[in-house]
């Protein structure tokens, strides 16, 4: 009892320094309540990665906090978990009388929950809550995909929460929990990137998402939108015959002077802007420097045998596109088609996976936001190209 009383007093004393919200379940790295945290940050864990209020800027990903000393948080593919938030102003949890108290939630905004199998280099967004998140008074349902493969690689298997606030300074928040995943699939999950914004110079684009309809500011809000909860639990990531995304993920960095807007599922909109934020109800990607539009698409499968069609090139209705001349001369393959392309080189075939040495090596390359990222199959398995897709499994070939 004495320990918890001291902890409560300590949390109250530091609340004025940095009283934003953190994830409480799953317990993230660096959290004062995490018994396995390699270091406990009592002052700045809840601060944005941008820094502020006596807190220095923190590194992406995961605020730069070291991995847990022991990984004890285990989830099965298909599990539905109730994510909870915590605020140092409420060390014992929120009480009914605290509904109007300040939890520094900036009238909500956009929360994304994602899995990473490579320590936060690449992500698969598995749930998105718009407008009303975060809020310590509510649980937020998130489903671990049925097709999630096992992951038992300490420091690499992460459950990430990232938040872009609706009101206040443009900031980027992230907590990461070290987890284990028990699954049956041998295929990697497709990359469905988190929204990267409001963290210059690394993420220079500016996003201002819509806020809580209740407009309660820092007090208790409306809670999860029913439409978001339903859409998140219905996601079929990495599977077949279902929707793979209901999130505004993979924003990337728009070119200077452009504005992009993505219609979110089912009705809300998010604007990503360099300069002045705007909102739109259009379901197309728009640009202020051209009158052309191109519908934005999301891949629902990984590593298809046929190279996907590039839909990002705008068309001009006033004149036909020039014919492309074929050539029989030998050319060096572009990074998007070259399985041996080096990590960090440019690529065009977004989301495409290639085994580096099928049946022998655990390494495979993925085109992620225009750059090649080298990833590893988990658990001592190797990358195998089978029928045009990439799988992680045991090879029958003799090495």
Automatic annotation (TrEMBL):
| Molecular function terms from GO | chitin binding
Bias-annotated ranges (Polar residues): 311-346
Task: Name a biological process GO annotation.
Answer: chitin catabolic process
Region: Disordered; residue ranges are: 195-346
Keyword annotations from UniProtKB, A to Z: Signal
Q: Point out the signal peptide segment.
A: 1-19
* One Pfam family cited in the UniProt record for this chain: CBM_19
Keyword Signal among UniProt keywords: yes
Residue span(s) of domain Carbohydrate-binding module family: 327-386
Q: Which ranges are annotated Low complexity under compositional bias? A: 243-309
InterPro entries of this UniProt entry? CBM19
User: Which Gene3D superfamilies does this entry report, sorted A to Z?
Assistant: 2.70.50.70
Q: What is the protein name stated in its UniProt record?
A: 12277_t:CDS:1
